[in-house]
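Deliverable D5.2: sample structural annotation.
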Amino acid sequence: MSATPGPAPGAGRTHLRDGATPGLPDGPAELLGTLGRSWQWILASAVATLVPGIVVLVWPDTTLHVLAVLIGLYLLVTGAFRFVGVLGREEQGARLPELLLAVLYVLAGVLCLRHPLQTIAALSLIVGVVWLVSGMLTLFTAIASRDLPHRGVVLGAALLAVVAGIVVLALPAESARALTRLLGLWLVLLGLVEVAIALAWRAALRRSGMAGAPRRPAGTG
């Protein structure tokens, strides 16, 4: 009767490539992948989407004010960087245009910080012009191309863009508040969907008795 050979030295733990052990994350990439497949991470993503949406819905005017301040700070910082960049140029002929552009950025930033509501109105005017022009171009294309697929849908979308552009141009401040509320509503709805996905993922993991899953649900990134 032959004796069963004992385990070879060093064979008490199965090793994978580069000394990795099964059941443990193989480096930062696998660790992050395991974290991304957990339902807690999906729930945290949902909360990160819900909270800004609720803030935008509860304080729309404050949100607009903060947005205008951030734009003003961005313009000031950009102007400062451009001014320093001008000083580093050796070509004398290229300094003047860059210097004027830097001063323009700084002045625009100061105006944004001094008059935030006018900044939002200006942004709304830009959005309105973009919608109006794009809608008119799309409308012209739909009318000129009789063999265009789904021509009726394209015509309807073009008319909707034209009407939206006219409304925004006529009421820039009110349109900005309405767009802000729509953004907040969209974030809240998206966050609620992610919460439902996270809870469903947790239930699926509990039913399978697994601590993780090989594939994360679609639409949670």
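Annotation notes: The chain has one domain: 40-204. The CA atoms of residues 46 and 192 lie 7 Å apart.
The annotation will be released with the project's public dataset once the embargo ends.
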